[in-house]
Amino acid sequence: MKLTEFTHQLETNPDAELRFALPDGELIEAHAHITEVGRVDKSFIDCGGKIWRLSHVSLQAWVADDVDHRLRPRPLANIIAQAAPLLGSDDLDVEIEHEGCVISQYPVESATIRDGALVFQLTSKHTACLAQDVCLPGVRSKSETPASESDACCSSGGCC
């Protein structure tokens, strides 16, 4: 979900209970507190030599012993508005960072109203080879095959 849609949901349902549903359907505790709003920029090179630049908005959900704490959509929308200079004008995807057994990042997939609560459905992230045409010889077509072995990712061909 993009940031504009996320904030639209917050602004449309300002006084609802705010909940986040993990990919398995379990809800993050209702007393979770958003401790960080930030823009994450990642620059990297894949195994095929292509340079990538990706960005997203990260909201860190922290669960503490304060079980009476309840963050509502309106204050979260205000916090995001305060972060606008850091987030920039790009309409970035939103991810929730949450610590269960390990710290995990979950893209926000959708929002629904359920029993008076604004529930953001989170989805799983997966790893993938971004250069499958280079690394998986059976995947690339003959037209994508390098003219010579030295044109491949490595002199031995395929993935380094």
Describe the overall structure.
The structure is a single chain. Strands 1-6-5-4-3-2 form a six-stranded mixed β-sheet. Helix 1 crosses helix 2. The protein has helices at 3-12, 73-82, 84-87, 132-135; strands at 17-21, 33-45, 51-62, 93-99, 103-114, 117-122. It has 160 residues and is α/β, with parallel strands linked by helices. 16% of the residues are buried.
In short:
This protein is α/β, with parallel strands linked by helices.
Q: What is the radius of gyration?
A: 20 Å
> What's the rounded overall pLDDT mean?
88
In total, the number of strands is: 6
Which residues sit in consecutive blocks of at least 5 with pLDDT less than 50? 140-156
- Number of H- or I-type helical stretches: 4
Gross morphology: globular
Class by helix and strand content?
alpha/beta
> Multimeric state of these chains?
single chain
Q: Give a short account of the largest sheet.
A: 6 strands, mixed
Strand content: 25-35%
